[in-house]
Design goal:
Elements lengths: L12 E4 L7 H14 L2 E4 L6 H5 L5 E5 L6 H6 L3 E3 L7 H6 L7 E6 L7 E2 L6 H7 L4 E7 L11 E2 L3 E7 L13 H11 L7 E4 L3 H8 L8 E3 L2 E2 L2 H7 L15 E3 L1 E2 L3 H6 L5 E3 L2 H4 L2 H4 L5 E6 L2 E3 L4 E2 L2 E2 L2 E2 L6 H10 L3 E5 L3 E2 L2 E2 L1 E2 L15 E4 L2 E4 L5 H10 L6 H9 L1
Parallel strand pairs: 1-2, 1-5, 2-3, 3-4, 5-7, 7-9, 10-11, 10-16, 11-13, 12-14, 13-15, 16-21, 17-24, 21-25
Antiparallel strand pairs: 6-8, 17-18, 19-20, 22-23, 25-26
Helix pairs in contact: 6-7, 7-8, 13-14
Length: 406
C-alpha cells in the first residue's frame, strides 16, 4: 500500500477522479490511513465505491457536486456536503480555491514512449482541477485506455504512483423497464436528422439511443458517453457531419459503460475534453443544432424542474442540466426534460415544487413522460398547466386540474 503521509497533511484538501476513472486503491489508502493523517477535506463526483460509503472515517469531510451513485447513501446518513453549482462552474471553483485542491488522486494510462500518461475515460473536471493542484498522486492502471482530446501528463508531474492491472470501473447495467421504453419512444420522436445530442448515462438514455437507429447524421456533445454510441456509430447514424463545431467528432468529458466500450474507444471518433470546454456557455452557444435531454425528479405545472431532492433526501445534482438546457433552449434546437409520471403513488407533475428548482421554466421547451410530450415553448402559464396535466398520470389529472384553478 502507498504511504500518503509525505503528501497528505492535517487540514489539507484532496480531490479524486469520478465514475469509471475513480482511483480506488488511492481512495482506499486514504480511508486506511485517515486517522493517522488527521482531518482532511475531500471532493469527488459520481462514485460507485461501496467501501467509501461504509467506512468513511469521521476525520474525512466529503463534499461533491451532487448525491450520485453510492453517494446517495452518504447523503441520507448526513455525511455528504453537497455544493450546489452548475457543472460549468467547477473549473472556476477549483481555480478560486473554493474546492479542495492541495492533492489530487488520478487514474491514468501507462506512459507512452515519451513518458506521458493519458487521463483515459475521466477527463471532465479533473483536467481543469489539475492546473490548480500542486501535488498529484497517480494510479497507473495497465487497462486504462489512452484517449484523445486532452493534454497528457508527464510522469514527472506525479509526486507518487501506484501501479495496478485491474478492470476499469463499469456502469451498473439495468435494462429499461416498460415505462422508460415508453418515455424513450416519445423522446425519439422529437429528434430530427442532424441534431447534436446531449444526454446522460443510464437505462433511459440507453433506451433513447436504441430508438435512433433510423436517424441520419446525428452528433454528440455531452458530459458522459455510454455503450449506446457504439451501435449508432457502427450503423452510420452518429456521424456528426452537421455539427457546427467539432464536425465528425463525438465530444465528451468522460465515459461510463462496459469493458467493450473502453476497449473500442480508440476506434471511435471521440475526443475527451475538460469541463471548461464541454460545458462552457461560449462553446455551447455555437451548437445551433443542440438538443439537450435531461431527467427530473419532478416538474411543476409551470415547467419548473427539480432534479436534486426527493422528499427531503438529496439524490441528484444540478450537474450539467442547466448548462445544456439553457443553451439548447436559447441558442440551440430544443431542451427536453424527461421523467416518470409517478413515483410510487405520487405524481411527479406537481402544483408547486417540493424541492429546490434546478432548471427554470424559461429553459424548458418540452417535458416528456410515458404519457406523451408537453410542448411548452411560447406557451403562457394556463396553457403550460393544461399541457403538463395532460401528460401526468391519469389518476392524478383531476387533482392537478383542481389545484391549478385555486
Amino acid at each position: 500500500m502507498i504511504d500518503l503521509s509525505p503528501h497528505v497533511r492535517p487540514g489539507i484538501g484532496v480531490w479524486w477522479s469520478q465514475a469509471g476513472a475513480e482511483p480506488t486503491p488511492l481512495v482506499h489508502a486514504l480511508l486506511d490511513q485517515a486517522d493517522d493523517l488527521g482531518p482532511v477535506r475531500a471532493f469527488c463526483g459520481l462514485s460507485w465505491d461501496q467501501r467509501l460509503v461504509r467506512e468513511l472515517p469521521s476525520s474525512v469531510s466529503l463534499s461533491s457536486y451532487g448525491a450520485l451513485g453510492q453517494l446517495r447513501r452518504l447523503s441520507r446518513a448526513g455525511r455528504l456536503n453537497v455544493v450546489p453549482c452548475h457543472y460549468s462552474a467547477l473549473p472556476r471553483l477549483f481555480a478560486e480555491g473554493a474546492l479542495p485542491a492541495d492533492v489530487g488522486f488520478v487514474q491514468v494510462s501507462p506512459p507512452d514512449a515519451a513518458g506521458t500518461c493519458s487521463l483515459g475515460i475521466g477527463v471532465d473536471y479533473i483536467a481543469d482541477a489539475i492546473a490548480h493542484t500542486p501535488v498529484l498522486i497517480a494510479e497507473i492502471n495497465r487497462r486504462m485506455p489512452v484517449t484523445a482530446g486532452a493534454a497528457r501528463l508527464p510522469l514527472s508531474r506525479f509526486a507518487a504512483v501506484v501501479e495496478t492491472d485491474r478492470p476499469v470501473g463499469e456502469a451498473p447495467a439495468r435494462p429499461a423497464d416498460d415505462v422508460e421504453q415508453a418515455i424513450a419512444r416519445n423522446v425519439a420522436e422529437l429528434i430530427e436528422d442532424g441534431d447534436t445530442l446531449q444526454m446522460g448515462v443510464g437505462s433511459l438514455p440507453a433506451a433513447v439511443l436504441d430508438r435512433l437507429a433510423g436517424h441520419q447524421d446525428l452528433g454528440f456533445h455531452t458530459g458522459m458517453i455510454s455503450d449506446g454510441v457504439l451501435s449508432l456509430v457502427e450503423k452510420g447514424v452518429l456521424t456528426g457531419a452537421r455539427k457546427e463545431i467539432d464536425p465528425g467528432l463525438i465530444v465528451t468529458g468522460a465515459a461510463l459503460g462496459s469493458s467493450e466500450l473502453y476497449e473500442r474507444l480508440g476506434d471511435l471518433p471521440v475526443e475527451f475534453r475538460p469541463a471548461s470546454y464541454t460545458h462552457s456557455p461560449a462553446t455551447l452557444s455555437r451548437l445551433r443544432s443542440l438538443v439537450s435531454i435531461n431527467s427530473a425528479i419532478e416538474v411543476d405545472l409551470t415547467g419548473q424542474v427539480c432534479s436534486e431532492r426527493r422528499r427531503g433526501d438529496y439524490i441528484g445534482a444540478i450537474g450539467g442540466q442547466v448548462d445544456f438546457s439553457r443553451a439548447a433552449a436559447l441558442t440551440g434546437a430544443r431542451s427536453i426534460i424527461t421523467l416518470r409520471a409517478t413515483s410510487g403513488e405520487n405524481s411527479t407533475i406537481v402544483p408547486t415544487p417540493t424541492g429546490p428548482v434546478t432548471t427554470g421554466r424559461s429553459d424548458v421547451d418540452i417535458v416528456v413522460t410515458e404519457h406523451g410530450a408537453a410542448h411548452l415553448r411560447g406557451c403562457d402559464l394556463p396553457e403550460r398547466t393544461r399541457r403538463l396535466t395532460a401528460i401526468a398520470g391519469p389518476e392524478h389529472r383531476d387533482a392537478l386540474s383542481r389545484a391549478a384553478i385555486q
